[in-house]
Amino acid sequence: MEVYEADMVAGRSSAVVSDCIRHLQNPDTPPYTPSLRRRERASAGEREEGKAMLLVLQDITLTLVDPVDHTLLHSQPVSSIRVWGVGRDHSRDFAYVARDKNTRVLKCHVFQCDSPAEAIAGSLHQICSKIMAERKNGKAAAGGSSLPGSDVPLQVEFPTPKTELQQSFHVHYLGVTSVSRPIGMDIINGAIDSLLSSTGKEDWTAVLLNVEDATVSVIKEKEEEEEEVLVECRVRFLSFMGVGRDIHTFAFIMDTGNQHFQCHVFWCEPNAGTVSEAVQSACVLRYQKCLVARSPSQKAGSSSPPPPDSVTRRVTTSVKRGVQSIIDTLKKKPSPELPNQ
């Protein structure tokens, strides 16, 4: 499905990708986004719709493989992917946007997976972080040994978050509820539905949601009295976030320790797109800082792994577990590859 360059901006791209997923699932339902248009029926991409395939993430490439004869159907360098996401309504829906190598038109590719798609998104984040770290180290080395140019396509610039992030949003706070797991759109949607059904709009609290590179705080707005901080969360303990089935709803899950997780839910106007992207940028920025926290001299002087409670160790372990679970799920399928999905 074709998308416009103008739609690939902060605050709009996530809503457009979600709209592509929804529209391709229900072609008879018109898209919310006016700029979306269906591809021509004669295009090669259209002919592949509905076909079973294996999605494989290997090195720095996303490939689509025929599950029967293992024929390569499509190959996409990860560095050329503009945006990706997991479906709001179904956690097994996955989509990414990239430019067609022949027509140079931006297209959104949508997949319905056999297992949760969070592992694909997590693996893509890991691959991008690896490429960015290698690129940074290569520039610092100034002529030192680095990966070949073909492995790290320097001509592609990744959208890097600001070094310092601070944004504020006027939203309504529905409340917080305990959840059973730290990740999953089913968990997010369940928490949102629970609070929407148990509260009325008169119960919601008008708040200022402050998003910084290290903290996310919820501040009760008061005209005469001093502002009251209702919630203050460290970004390092934010385990999952997402926009709900209603595009006005947004929620994030915090790991409060001892296997206890809390989900905070918000109502946003005109939609939750900008709030979602701001929190996502804070998470990516935090992760990038962890990757480059130890200088090359520190690495040379110490080969010890990160401490058990470090963010780098927890994020890496979480991604590895997700990828391994997908690999285990697909072991029964006749493929010589190790697909992430």
UniProtKB/TrEMBL annotation:
CDD domains: PTB2_Fe65
One GO term of the biological process aspect: regulation of DNA-templated transcription
Gene Ontology MF annotations: amyloid-beta binding
Domain PID: 38-137, 168-296
GO cellular component: cytoplasm; nucleus
Alphabetical list of PROSITE patterns matching this protein: PID (PS01179)
InterPro entries recorded: APBB1/2/3, PH-like_dom_sf, PTB/PI_dom
SUPFAM superfamilies: PH domain-like (SSF50729)
Keywords: Repeat
UniProt superkingdom: Eukaryota
Region of interest (Disordered), residue spans: 26-48, 296-317
Signal sequence range: none
Protein name: Amyloid beta protein binding family B member 2
